[in-house]
Amino acid sequence: xxxxxxxxxxxxxxxxxxxxxxxxxxKGLLEQIxxxxxxxxxxxxxxxxxxxxxxxxAYRVQHSQHKSPCxxxxxxxxxxxxxxxxxxxALMTYKCxxxxxxxGGGKGGIKINPRKYSAYELEKITRRYTSELVKxxxxxxxxxxxxxxxxxxxxxxxxxxxxYASLKPGEIDAAGCVTGxxxxxxxVRGRKEATGLGVFFGIRxxxxxxxxxxxxxxxxxxxxxxxxxxxxxxxxxHSAKFFRExxxxxxxxxxxxxxxxxxDGINEEELFQHRKQTGSILNFxxxxxxxxxxxxxxxACDILIPAALENVINGENAGKVQAKIIGEAANGPLTxxxxxxxxxxxxxxxxDMYLNAGGVTVSYFEWLKNLSHVRYGRMEKRFTExxxxxxxxxxxxxxxxxVTDAERKFILHGPEEVDxxxxxxxxxxxxxxxxxxxxxxxxxSIPDMRTAAYVCAINKVGTSYGExxxxx
Length: 472
Description:
Helix 10 links the parallel strand 11 and strand 12.
């Protein structure tokens, strides 16, 4: 077990214990909230393309069943081990509680490097893993619902749902056994950009709080703020996109090959295309290359978004960070030491455990869609358009004035599935941000926003256990 993963598991427990002191729950109940309920460690053989047999190591952890089903991604990575999967499953419990998504936390992992296997080998591994989960009742729309994570995507989720449905003939809700599926297989529109958009909504809500901004010496709103993004993957790309579109200036972007700085702002799509052509983000027209990719983390800016790896801001470099707000788009980008240093400096860290919950929130919408067997917007789209057409005609008639074509198009537009998904995500992130901030304001001795978020999660899970009558 590498030290990094051990630290990640420990830092989740450490953050939990730090927050538990600010709650009034019984010590035994706190132990139950913290504990992983079920751990399924498995080994199974798969025949490779060259005829040899390889034994695959895999896991599925169900951290909490205070709500059913459990929910959490499946990652394909060389680094997968039991402790890491347990830590990520625990974070899922707290994440779902904070954003009011009625799931317990779960997580899965297969210890392979997906790049070293053919598509056919990956399919065999994924389908065998699914059948092992079915055998032990570790998957199902009301039991445990996986999703994509590192090294997995729509393709793997399609294999999982197909395997599950073939082993459970006649189960009408079979599509709800997994989320992150292709739209044609029951997936939901808006899933791809969900995490980055959730990051934007969460930070925008913090930036709209006058008292919080006054403390940081910043103006309210995201407009005009200087943003640095680490990572140009799915989450980093979409975070940069939504900040730019809403008037912020993305002054720097970092990737593993290096970092670039451009004072008047970087367009993430142009940079993405530049990287596609040249294989690197460096030498982007009009931008300055930085010596090391980690230099971007220490630039003067208003908002820093680490959207790549774990532990990138630690005891060594936290003192050099100049950002006023750090939005944790990745899982665990700050170490507990970094938290202490940044809290003393007065930097506001918006924690990963709720800020990157866009993915699980939209997964929840997909699961509901699968259970209801109807696409979002199908029932109300035309009704809304017809009603808006009528209202607009009346207003134009009464006022004797006409609206512009662009305005007409906007007003008459009935909601598509993606509009409703984005709207539901916006509501979720705004509500969660306000709940955490209210807990923090009510108890000023809570040291930082992460601890306030844990307090919020512990209180919700504790209340749920109490309402189940498990602890009278």
